[in-house]
Write a structure and sequence with these properties.
Layout lengths: L3 H8 L3 H4 L5 H13 L14 H11 L5 H10 L5 H13 L18 H13 L6 H8 L4 H12 L11 H4 L4 H16 L6 H6 L6 H13 L6 H10 L3 H8 L8 H13 L3 H13 L2 H11 L8 H10 L4 H14 L3 H14 L5 H5 L8 H15 L3 H10 L3 H13 L7 H10 L5 H12 L4 H13 L3 H17 L3 H9 L5 H10 L4 H14 L6 H17 L4 H7 L3 H17 L6 H9 L6 H14 L5 H8 L8 H16 L1
Helix pairs in contact: 4-6, 5-6, 7-9, 8-9, 9-11, 11-13, 13-15, 14-15, 15-17, 16-17, 18-19, 19-21, 20-21, 21-23, 23-25, 24-26, 25-27, 26-27, 27-29, 28-29, 29-31, 30-32, 32-33, 33-35, 35-37, 37-39, 38-39
Length: 656
Amino acid sequence: MVENRLMTELVDKSAEEIGSERNASLWNSIYYKTAEGGAADPIELPQLTDPILKISFIQYLSGIAEERAALYLRRFLFDDNPAVVDAAKKSFDRNSYTRKLYLLIPVLNASSSLAQRYAIEKLSLGGISQAIEPMLALLENASEALQIEILSALELLPDSRVVSFLPPFLDSPNVKLRLKAVMVLSAVYISGKKNVRRKLLECLRDSVPEIRKTALWALEKRPLKRDLKILFSFSKNDPHPEVRQTALEEFVFFPTQAVVQHLVEILDREQDPHVLLKAQSILMDLPAAKLTPILHRLTRSPGGESWATALCIYPKSKQDTKFLSRYLKKSLAQSETEQQRFNIFELMGATQDAELIPLLRSRINSSDPSAYAALHSLLQIERAHPSPQLLESLLAEIHSTALRQILLRHLVTTSDYPVTDRLLASVIESAHDPSLSIRLLAIQALMQIKRENVYRFLFNLLLHEKNREVQKLLEEKIAEYCGEQQDFLPRIFRETAQADEVPFFQKIVKNVSWFPQTWMSLFHEILRRLKYPGNFPLQQFLEEILTTLLLLKQVPLVQIMMAVKKPWLQNQVLWIIARLAARTLDLLDSASISYLEDTFASFNSNGQRAILEILRNSHDPSALPFLCRLIGKKKFNKIKSLTTNIIHHMIWRSDA
């Protein structure tokens, strides 16, 4: 029995103290003192009625690597309080007593479902084979939910003793139970146990695709040549694509000619992309010695059922592409139909053989569909052997709009393609094409060339483009380039901008990333161009630039005002600041306000009124002494009434 003094001391402690390390010594003295006294129980658990005390003791027991500590943690698995049970599980997991899992075997027959499920999970994960018999005994009369958990556990404990218990579950109307039973059977089969294969094959008749897939997966883990007939059937005829895909897996172990031909036929007939990809990847992995003979045989009959598929596999499987090139030339000479010629030209690109370029070029301006296949193959070869001269020639030779689209799309999708002056000139010419689709593709191709002369051309194109879709594309991409080249936009504006072109600059500026240097350069250039009032496009642009500079507070007001020299322009800038201050709190800092006060007398009456409005809208009480001084000076009598109103306004706001 625990000494009353120690228990009282423990109970009197607060919740925070109980869980602290300082009290480990207290639990230690209780635990080991009782053990020395020979008591069967180190603590009489009924005395621990407070959940906090129980959890504290449980946490202490997690660090005691002894059977006795593990037994007490096991007892707490049956507690009525879920928090205590959860703490017991965590401490049992952390406890390092090596044989603790064997102590959970009796829990399999417990009345507590939470403790029972915990024991099932831990015993299976720990590979405790002594738990198999108790689990099997529990299996027959358990609920369906518990049966599923037991079967999941037995999957991790594959044993031939389990097999005789599975038939009722393999025939169950409950799909989940059936699937779990098949998974257990599969685990037993994979572990190498005998007399299981027949039952596994029976599962292939199940109507549920997942069950058939699981059985096929198990067969693949122990590959046998006698499975081929089954695999041929399921990979070709099963209605579910995932089952067909799983049936293909085992073929990799049997690279026979029959398997190769079957896979080629799958590529011909299959519609599901995942099954196609799996069949193709298996073919790619087969040894060349096994693959080549069947491909040679299949390619002897042009236009046959598996002919095109076999030819496609040649280059992808790193076979002799020179043989394929010679074969295709010969087949072209012997071809009888347009469809055969189309297939041959389309397959030429897969060889990546530059020697086929003259033959393909001779076809691209023909009127039949094979011109498309020839161009497609040409571009495949060009991607493998980059040739700007070939692209130049093709752009000059091709007149069909559809073929020019294919060629330009090739340039768009080819990153860092080599550019010569002649190729650039050809693409620029296409950017003026009357066809909208050609123009868009040519512009997209040009946008990949990060050169200033190219983007100058694109900007000039924007100024004259009428189609809004093309305009939007140009605005976004030119803005991206301006973000990378910060001096590009100010320089273009300085060199080329006319009054009617200012709106285009405004649209681009809205998309440009914020760089103070870029925006200040534009600000200076606008000031230089504004020679007289009334230039409304430039004045509107000035307001947008000034608003950005002030709102982002990266450029001080002093720097902005010192850049403005013309009195009428100073007034305009001040009124812009006043309007902005009216709708933006804390627009100006104290240094900016001090600057306006110090330079107040240098402005004309219009500018002075603007500064007063700025001070009113800034709501800064520190400006009151300056405003009071203005009232006492005769030279500011014209604005005395406005100044008085502003003082009253600021005092009223301060009192409010």
